[in-house]
Amino acid sequence: MEYDELFHYYQQAERREILGGVRGEAANPSCGDTCTVHLKIEDDQIVDASFTGESCALSTAYTAKLLSMIRGKRLDEVERLREEDILKLFGMVDAPRLGCALLGYRAVKAALKAYREEKRGKAGGV
Predict the structure, then answer these.
(1) By three-state DSSP, how is residue 11 classified?
(2) Which of 34, 35, 61, 81 could form an SS bridge with 9, CB 3.0 to 4.6 Å?
């Protein structure tokens, strides 16, 4: 990601909670950054996405860009994303910053896992 684009997404970061949605958390132990992604999912489609937490500019920008990209997508599309895909889409970063670049992605994956577990629990009558 170029500096101007990074700065744009950093400025546009949607830091808020979504009530009634599902959330996933991730942390980067090397620097202490944290990210909680909030997703509102209807009919297996992400209709809203936001995040909260404390993170560096790179992590904030990558997370904001990822959330803007997955809004409106079907879950199966988002679940197919891999770490390598994120790095290709947004630009490679130096090895010490990989944890920053992938923090939001890891929180999205945790939120999707929580959603699937919640859905499985409701389907099983739990």
Answers:
(1) helix
(2) 61
Query: Over the range 92-106, which residues count as b (16 or more CB within 10 Å of their CB) and which as e?
Result: ebeeebebbbbbbbb
Query: Which one-letter amino acid corresponds to residue 51?
Result: F
122: in domain: no
**Does any domain span residue 121?**
no
Q: What is the CATH number of the domain that holds 63?
A: 3.90.1010.10
CB 115 within 8 A of CB 22: yes
pLDDT at 10 over 60: yes
- DSSP state string for 38-96: EEEEETTEEEEEEEES---HHHHHHHHHHHHHHTT-BHHHHHT--HHHHHHHH----GG
What is the rounded CA–CA span in Å between residue 57 and residue 6?
Answer: 8
Q: Which two tokens mark 48?
A: 């809203």
Q: Is the pLDDT of residue 83 over 70?
A: yes
